[in-house]
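Q: Cupin domain protein, please. Structure only.
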Amino acid sequence: MCSATGTAIPTVMIQNERVLVTEWRFKKRGDNTGWHRHAYDYVVIPQFDGVLEIDLGNGERITAQMQSGVPYFREIGVEHDVINANDFECAFVEVELLEPRK
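A: Structure for Cupin domain protein:
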């Protein structure tokens, strides 16, 4: 993921020719990933029960309910800024699928 400056803390856990696995940690309410566009399909695995706000641009924001351990998939091209909407520290693991689709 190519990310603009945000306050969430990315920690690369695995990086090879097939996948990029990053933990995104949000220490407090309002921490964010920074505006970015996903260059690959990806899977997110929340590590908490709670809510994230997703800034889609043009003033549009949505709320996404997260459940610990329940993954979700998104396709290449998603553009957004992900924001912690909780009053507690939270994190998710993002797995980017670097191999092109066949």
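A: Brief note, in case it's useful. The mean pLDDT is 94.
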